[in-house]
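Changelog note: in this version the structure field was regenerated for every chain. One regenerated record is shown below for reference.
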Amino acid sequence: MPAPSVCSPASRLIAPTIAAIIVFALLCSLGAWQWRRLHWKEALIAQVNGRIHDAPVAAPGPSDWPKLDLAAFDYTPVSVSGSFLNDREAYLYGSLSEPRGPVGGVGWWVFTPFRTDAGWIVYVNRGFVPDANRLPAKRLAGQIEGHVTVTGLLRRPERPSHWFGDGISRDDQWFAREPSLFARASGLPAAEVAPYSIDADATPNIGGLPQGGETTIIFPNNHLQYVVTWFGLAFALVAVFIAYARGVLRGRR
């Protein structure tokens, strides 16, 4: 009967070594990717913080919409003239924990379609109102009529959560800013509605509501934490593999 073959300790390390190298490379690549994301996010924050103080430009019209990079234009100061369609308001649920004005807490952002002098429509976030003042009847003094000029920050739309089905509200109470859905619910022609909205500046409204100029500029930036996590896991893997390899080479299980 032939004697059973005995694998050398070194040969037993071939497969674990290959696996460890692959996982180590993957963890390091994830760490490097997060490092690049960290620098991108810091540059974006600096760019936006500088941009919001620029002089406003004309809000992009229909001829610009097909090629408009909404991510690049987010938070750009713009202005537009026309009149509000106050009977078509939409309400975005939210909270204002650190208000610049006197009103804060849980409430609603009032989005009102604004027909421009050129005929197209853009939704304007006129500002924040407490829950008790959501309906126009509770803030009649602030329902602006006639020709006005609105200045504020261009904002890109948000994708509604899948938890809310098709995203269409039946009572004009919303959980994501998406002008196309606001327009569809209000029966406005989609082709005439801008793909972005405008957050109105702090120009006071009669009666104090809605309270404009409350745009919150927050960019979650946890990338440094992720960098430390991925590279930490990579070096922890190295330490564990070294301990394992030493055990194998010494003949232990």
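Spot check on this record: The longest helix spans residues 14-51. The two ends are 27 Å apart (CA to CA).
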